[in-house]
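queue> pop job 88
queue> type: inverse folding (structure -> sequence)
queue> payload:
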């Protein structure tokens, strides 16, 4: 890896710290001075450069880092342990060079490594200067420091360009310790007791994150299909719109994740071809999706696409396919059929197609079954897409197509490790997927959503578009799962 550049950090001072702040008294904590923060950031950069590419949420995997440039460094706690909030720009060289990506890091600095911080969360030992010998680590894993973050959210503090904001309603307890969430995820979350969950967005773009934007819109419209938003924090980067950094929501302690429920059913298929009846749940989930879509259509902008805009929609799908073919050449053989499906979308008589804000990355893992019914999570959209694109109104059926893919995933994932070895289970699993896909669509229509069967060209194009995204996603993150979306592409291409 090339040596990253070490630009000067833009650091913030809390206005009152010189007089009242708990200024660090024990080495090696951050000193709440511009010089103290800069020194720490410079010492941390080489460790960050090594650690970042090992993190699941890091989007630049496989591309060498050309430069690491601190954007804003804000000490949120001084002393030992210390807590440093850092926004850092990562630039890549060569053909992929561009403005780079900004990441949010929450760094803990302690003389003694806490037991809750495992090896993957440790960046290393700082050397030289004030911090010599201190451990630098991902503070998401330190209950004391994440507790500090909750206090800031509870009091609605401001530190330089960081603002902590609360929604109206019951006050927040400021004293709950946080534990790192162990779920597979694109960001990092901290769970506070059984009360709240704080998502720290890792890749930061200027502007309101759709997860906050849509969750607030749904909450304000009185929807109970999302966990209530309790607080968030944001940062104003130069003159642009504030960028959302974190979102605190009620934790659904008594909920079961739709993906786990579905997998449990599929795993038991062999012994009992109709274990439980997930189709009832799939139907309810369809209704819940339609309900969320209805509220979003009422409370956020909508539009209708004319023929030219539908051709643009299909063109964007074809462009995404072409980039996917470059990333995963195994897709090349399907390209003609998939392009034909996109062409058929432009020829279908869909003039006036309604579009609206949608979830954008709906799957069974984003659906929680609570005693009060299904609740949807994570309205961030596909993490790989630029934020402006994720905020565009879309056909609501895009979410339906995405959920249909998820039923296919649940059915296929047990077979992915041993393709062709259990034809009986393969048949049962594919019948399970078909049953639940149909139940979900029926529930969606019964809940007031548009009938997916009414626009087969649109549904097929949307499902292909999602499966193409999944091929790239799996190739990058979970290569052993790649056969799942590839098999779907194979099936969908056969229908053109
Ligand atoms: N409010 C919540 N209550 C309970 N569990 C949650 C809640 N929000 C998220 N989770 C759990 O955390 C996981 C990751 O959350 P998600 O919002 O999808 O994060 P990411 O955008 O980082 O992928 C979810 O799949 C779910 O298991
Ligand atoms: O939940 P995230 O916002 O992190 O979404 C990303 O990761 C998902 C996997 O965790 C991925 O979803 C794909 O795998 C799921 C099973 O793990 C499956 O149910 C989905 O249908 C499939 O798309 C999602 O695409 C990605 O954006």
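queue> result:
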């Amino acid at each position: 890896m090339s040596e990253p550049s070490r630009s000067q950090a833009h650091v913030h001072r809390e206005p009152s710290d010189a007089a009242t702040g708990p200024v660090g008294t024990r080495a090696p904590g951050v000193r709440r001075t511009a010089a103290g923060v800069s020194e720490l950031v410079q010492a941390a950069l080489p460790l960050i450069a090594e650690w970042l590419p090992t993190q699941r949420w890091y989007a630049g995997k496989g591309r060498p880092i050309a430069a690491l440039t601190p954007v804003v460094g804000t000490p949120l706690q001084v002393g030992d342990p210390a807590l440093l909030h850092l926004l850092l720009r990562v630039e890549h060289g060569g053909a992929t060079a561009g403005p780079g990506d900004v990441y949010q890091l929450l760094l803990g600095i302690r003389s003694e490594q806490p037991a809750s911080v495992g090896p993957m969360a440790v960046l290393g030992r700082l050397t030289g200067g004030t911090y010599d010998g201190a451990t630098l680590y991902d503070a998401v894993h330190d209950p004391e420091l994440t507790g500090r973050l909750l206090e800031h959210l509870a009091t609605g503090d401001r530190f330089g360009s960081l603002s902590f904001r609360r929604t109206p309603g019951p006050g927040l307890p400021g004293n709950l310790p946080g534990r790192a969430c162990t779920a597979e995820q694109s960001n990092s979350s901290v769970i506070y007791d059984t009360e709240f969950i704080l998502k720290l967005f890792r890749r930061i773009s200027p502007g309101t994150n759709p997860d906050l934007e849509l969750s607030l819109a749904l909450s304000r419209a009185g929807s109970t299909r999302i966990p209530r938003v309790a607080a968030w924090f944001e940062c104003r980067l130069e003159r642009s719109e504030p960028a959302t950094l974190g979102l605190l929501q009620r934790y659904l302690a008594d909920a079961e994740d739709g993906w786990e429920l579905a997998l449990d059913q599929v795993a038991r298929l062999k012994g009992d071809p109709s274990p439980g009846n997930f189709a009832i749940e799939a139907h309810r989930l369809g209704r819940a999706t339609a309900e969320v879509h209805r509220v979003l259509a009422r409370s956020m902008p909508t539009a209708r696409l004319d023929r030219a805009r539908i051709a643009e929609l299909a063109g964007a799908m074809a462009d995404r396919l072409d980039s996917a073919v470059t990333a995963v050449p195994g897709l090349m053989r399907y390209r003609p059929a998939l392009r034909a499906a996109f062409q058929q979308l432009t020829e279908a008589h869909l003039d006036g197609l309604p579009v609206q804000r949608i979830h954008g990355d709906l799957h069974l893992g984003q659906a929680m079954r609570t005693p009060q019914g299904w609740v949807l999570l994570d309205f961030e959209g596909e993490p790989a897409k630029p934020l402006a694109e994720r905020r565009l109104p879309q056909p609501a059926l895009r979410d339906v197509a995405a959920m249909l893919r998820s039923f296919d995933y649940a059915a296929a994932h047990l077979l992915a490790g041993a393709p062709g070895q259990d034809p009986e289970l393969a048949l049962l699993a594919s019948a399970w997927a078909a049953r639940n896909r149909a139940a979900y669509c029926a529930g969606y229509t019964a809940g007031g959503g548009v009938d997916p069967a009414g626009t087969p060209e649109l549904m097929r194009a949307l499902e292909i578009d999602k499966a193409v995204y999944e091929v790239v996603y799996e190739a990058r993150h979970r290569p052993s799962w790649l056969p799942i979306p590839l098999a779907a592409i194979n099936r969908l291409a056969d229908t053109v």
